[in-house]
Amino acid sequence: DVIKFTPSGFYYQDVWKSTARLVVRQFNDTSITQCLHGKVVYLFGDSTVRQWFEYLNDVVPDLKEFHLGSPKKVGPFLAVDSVHNIMLKYRCHGPPIRFSTV
Question: Cα 95 from chain centroid?
Answer without folding.
Answer: 20
